[in-house]
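Hi all, posting the design record for the shared folder.

TITLE: backbone redesign
STEP: 1 of 1
STRUCTURE INPUT:
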């Protein structure tokens, strides 16, 4: 198992709560199956298929809220697919390892960040991580050359609706967000990274976010948002924000100075 000096990590991370387990203390049992369904939809939309024997990693995995459901789905159809989880919280990694081992899933669990990743992967997932970092641009540079594709889940919180209800302040206080993106600033960040955008999916434009158990009012709001994002996602994101799922591919070596990696090729 890879190790990392947690004291050094605290220096480069925005807050020691991520390394000392405080952030995950009340989030160990969360499962994000709906994000797995969103990834499936994004892959279909982009016309990209999982290769057999794929090597998949998640950075900022926590206890595997996303990676464990993803591994359950993919391992059921291809037992040669392997997974790796990286997080700077030893407590989160220990909890994830216990859950993954109990489910018999081929996941390697590592205490470390993007800079400590070793090996090469077909896909690296970064799910709701960049908004927590002091230097997300450096984080993306640390991923350069380590995977052919990066799948990134990112909230859009710089919108008129978010400003009206003071959402950035509440996101900082509740879930320690430090970065607040609009669609345009997200594109600027990604455009200056070692990766290029292949495709993007707005969560509000996916039927996977519909939940029949919610109240009639909530379902009506989601219905309106769904068609608004289908009609004009840029305008809808300016008004209401939301969440985005990005499929990124390594830029050509001539543009970045590093070569894209495909573990299965």
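Okay, here is what came back for every position:
SEQUENCE:
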């Amino acid at each position: 198992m890879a190790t990392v000096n947690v004291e050094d990590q605290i220096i480069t991370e925005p807050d020691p709560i991520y390394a000392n387990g405080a952030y995950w203390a009340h989030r160990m049992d969360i499962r994000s199956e709906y994000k797995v369904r969103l990834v499936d939809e994004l892959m279909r939309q982009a016309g990209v298929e999982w290769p057999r024997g794929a090597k998949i990693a998640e950075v900022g995995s926590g206890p595997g809220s996303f990676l464990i459901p993803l591994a359950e789905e993919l391992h059921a159809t291809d037992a040669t697919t392997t997974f790796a989880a990286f997080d700077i919280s030893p407590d989160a990694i220990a909890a994830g390892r216990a859950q993954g081992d109990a489910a018999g899933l081929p996941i390697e669990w590592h205490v470390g960040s993007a800079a400590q990743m070793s090996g090469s992967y077909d896909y690296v997932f970064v799910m709701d991580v960049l908004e927590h970092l002091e230097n997300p641009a450096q984080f993306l540079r640390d991923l350069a050359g380590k995977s052919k594709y990066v799948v990134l889940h990112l909230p859009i919180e710089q919108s008129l609706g978010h400003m009206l209800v003071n959402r950035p302040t509440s996101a900082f206080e509740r879930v320690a967000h430090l970065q607040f993106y609009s669609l345009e600033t997200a594109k600027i960040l990604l455009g200056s990274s070692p990766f290029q955008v292949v495709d993007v999916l707005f969560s509000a434009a996916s039927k996977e976010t519909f939940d029949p158990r919610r109240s009639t009012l909530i379902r009506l709001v989601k219905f309106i948002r769904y068609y608004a994002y289908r009609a004009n996602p840029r305008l809808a994101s300016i008004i209401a924000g939301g969440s985005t799922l990005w499929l990124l591919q390594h830029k050509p070596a001539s543009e970045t100075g590093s070569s894209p990696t495909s573990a299965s090729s």
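COMMENT: The domain at 6-251 is CATH 3.40.50.150 (Rossmann fold).
Let me know if anyone wants the other runs.
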